[in-house]
Amino acid sequence: MKRVPYKRGEQTFEPENVAYLIGESNYSHVHQVDGEVILSCRNLKWFEDQWPAFVRLHKSALINVNSIAYYATGESNRVVMTDNAELIIARRRVPEVFSLLAAKGITKKEDELAYDDSSSYM
User: Fold this and answer.
1) One MF term in GO for this entry (predicted)?
2) CA separation for the pair 31, 18 (Å, rounded)
3) The total number of structural domains that make up the chain
4) Structural domain boundaries, residue 42
């Protein structure tokens, strides 16, 4: 069990119970699998060093691969978590993240066109 300082003192929880983390300056919002969100005074780099099994999507998102429902491509490359949260993958991290997700057997969904080709814009 890891003890992590957060806004109201110190919280103890297992990394397996964390779905993803969202960074905001020097703080992190820890989104747990049960839906609880904890504000921690640690930055994402600290969590990334402590939990090497987590994957960095971009500068403000760190995810637990076990909490991914699927990943999608199209206008924006993103992962959809089990709680339906959509997190964008940074362009430079796409190849690394997609190969890791494919190796883990996580399904890929293609985006459908968001517009009708038959309509004219002239």
Assistant:
1) DNA binding
2) 6
3) 1
4) 2-110
